[in-house]
From TrEMBL:
It comes from the Bacteria. GO terms for biological process: glycoside metabolic process. The keyword Zinc applies. PANTHER family: N-ACETYLGLUCOSAMINYL-PHOSPHATIDYLINOSITOL DE-N-ACETYLASE (PTHR12993:SF11), N-ACETYLGLUCOSAMINYL-PHOSPHATIDYLINOSITOL DE-N-ACETYLASE-RELATED (PTHR12993). The keyword Zinc applies. Keywords: Zinc. Pfam families: PIG-L. This is LmbE family N-acetylglucosaminyl deacetylase. One of its GO terms (molecular function) is hydrolase activity, acting on carbon-nitrogen (but not peptide) bonds, in linear amides.
Length: 217
């Protein structure tokens, strides 16, 4: 039973798609935990093995292990960690990325990505969002985008406000052994501690035309 006052939408199987391993916890962790708490089966697919190229290849294994542990804390059932190099997604084909995303979760009735419609979005995040949009279109599934941006009602976007599970998110973040205590990611996340998160509905399964126009993506 969920005790959230602003519950997540009812989803049977959710595929959470991120560009970098830390995105799954720092950005999406509170929302993933809230879905898992509501009974949704969550599968995470992460397209690259890090934020930057590793000088020591072994660190990739450490990060895969850390992400596996973190995922259990936020209640995800499974993680697929793909091996694209960080910073290279802009050169990867959208169709190929979408096919890899679909391979990870063909039975998902909803997908979750990080909103990359803002002007300062990381190029890997932009590519990931576009590929996830294509995967959602192929599946005919709903696509939610987690966002920190202020609501933009003039764009006609449907926005859901949901309660995040910060306790589980914190436990998941503690699993990232390779992240220094003073890393800016930590301080950025610590500034974002309110209970609620916002999800933009980028695509719904119930309409024939997508909620977002192609220009938005
Ligand atoms: Zn990222």
């Amino acid at each position: 039973m969920s005790n959230h006052t602003k519950p997540v939408p009812e989803v049977r199987r959710l595929l959470a798609v991120c560009a970098h391993p830390y995105d799954a916890t720092f950005a999406l962790g509170g929302v993933i935990a809230a879905f898992a708490d509501a009974g949704t089966a969550v599968h995470i697919v992460c397209l690259t093995h890090g934020r930057r190229t590793d000088a020591v290849p072994r660190r990739r294994l450490d990060r895969a292990r850390d992400l596996g542990r973190a995922s259990r804390h936020i209640g995800a059932e499974d993680v697929t960690l793909l091996d694209h190099a960080p910073g290279t997604l802009m050169t990867a084909s959208i169709d190929e990325l979408a096919a890899e995303i679909l391979d990870a979760g063909r039975d998902a009735d909803a997908l979750l990505a990080i909103d990359a419609t803002g002007p300062d979005a990381h190029p890997d995040h932009v590519r990931t969002m576009r590929a996830t949009y294509r995967a959602a279109t192929r599946l005919g599934s709903t696509l939610y985008a987690w966002t920190l941006r202020a609501p933009q009602p003039t764009r006609g976007q449907q926005v859901l406000v949901v309660d995040a599970d910060r306790e589980r998110q914190r436990a998941a973040i503690a699993c990232h052994t390779g992240l220094p205590a003073d890393d800016p990611l930590r301080s950025r996340w610590l500034n974002h501690q309110q209970r609620e998160e916002r999800l933009i509905v980028l695509r719904t399964e119930r309409v024939l035309s997508p909620v977002a126009t192609r220009a938005d993506l």
